[in-house]
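Students often ask why we bother encoding 3D structure as a string. The short answer is that it lets us treat folding as translation between two languages. Here is a chain of 203 residues written in the first language.
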Amino acid sequence: MADKEKKVKKKKKEEAPAEAAPAPAPAAESRTSSKGSSKKAKRSGSNVFSMFSQSQVAEFKEGFQLMDNDKDGIISKSDLRATFDAVGKLSNEKELDEMVNEASGPINFTQLLSLFGNRMQDSGGTDDDEVVVAAFRSFDENGTIDSERFRHALMTWGDKFSAKEVDDAFDAMEIDDKGRIDTNSLIQLLTAAPEDEGEGEAA
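And here it is in the second language, the structure alphabet:
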């Protein structure tokens, strides 16, 4: 009888921890998985935002808000059509479908950033302000840029500008009566970074 009681007690002791052990395990798993998924979500989001400077993200946000015609937080085909209409560009259904289908899901702001990020990675990266400044400095002659030489470069190399695009760009630039563009004003117009840093150092 005593042997039987010992065996039963021993059996209960063995069973109890075995039954108790699985209970904490799912909790630990769910804790780990929820942490893992939240880290993963943060990581994927932060990767997109870390590809751009704060000023670039702000510019993309402004662009997104302009394109989101119905203000629902998603850029749809009708939003794209309205955006193209607003800038005077005719677009057909096929073009609009291709643009919308480039995204893996609805085009919210993060998705739009991802699209731009992927495009920039495919083309070899983003143009940081330093790269933009260096590009304009290469045209600089004693603080100014020859507008005709610059026009020729814009229409000849890289992503070629049309004559109208160059004219539109030149409308935003300060060009003197000798056809010279002030280099620093142009750089400030396009980046604003060098002037801001200079002011910060002076203060």
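Translate back mentally: Residues 129 and 192 are 9 Å apart (CA to CA). Keep this in mind for the problem set.
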